[in-house]
């Protein structure tokens, strides 16, 4: 079932790749800078999309960037020239990463785990491929805990999921902890709905 759902979501993102750059403008440049100030060494970007983060890659790092959508990767390849560092693009599903344990110093994702069919499994894979002394940096929108807004997000979620393949009511902080990632810092960037989460794998 999870594999079938992954294929459905992939098809939706292949479909939206042509206008995804417009959707991605909802993430301000300042938020992207905040994320990429946290990285070092060998970096894995999960869910690279159409490459909106390329201009923010800091000099000196080595980046492998993955996405499960061929349509998204095709758009990203056209932007490689704006990256400050070489980028190795790969088609890959975060739920089944094809890297060895402890392969990366930093793993980054920006608004990705709202999409992954099994977010805890994806986060467990992130934890596995990150070095024990490495860093996991996530920019994610989450379900509001407000008494009114939270249920509204729940009600709208099926429509949003159908249209673009994204869930707007994920409890991502809880999912991060369920995956065994130890949270060092959690910052609210837009109310309590958009969060910067910085953590590390801890003991595996």
TrEMBL record:
<dbReference type="InterPro" id="IPR050508">
    <property type="entry name" value="Methyltransf_Superfamily"/>
</dbReference>
<dbReference type="GO" id="GO:0008757">
    <property type="term" value="F:S-adenosylmethionine-dependent methyltransferase activity"/>
</dbReference>
<dbReference type="Pfam" id="PF08241">
    <property type="entry name" value="Methyltransf_11"/>
</dbReference>
<protein>
    <submittedName>
        <fullName>Demethylmenaquinone methyltransferase</fullName>
        <ecNumber>2.1.1.163</ecNumber>
    </submittedName>
</protein>
<dbReference type="InterPro" id="IPR013216">
    <property type="entry name" value="Methyltransf_11"/>
</dbReference>
<feature type="domain" description="Methyltransferase type 11">
    <location>
        <begin position="44"/>
        <end position="138"/>
    </location>
</feature>
<dbReference type="GO" id="GO:0043770">
    <property type="term" value="F:demethylmenaquinone methyltransferase activity"/>
</dbReference>
<keyword id="KW-0808">Transferase</keyword>
<dbReference type="InterPro" id="IPR029063">
    <property type="entry name" value="SAM-dependent_MTases_sf"/>
</dbReference>
<keyword id="KW-0489">Methyltransferase</keyword>
<dbReference type="GO" id="GO:0032259">
    <property type="term" value="P:methylation"/>
</dbReference>
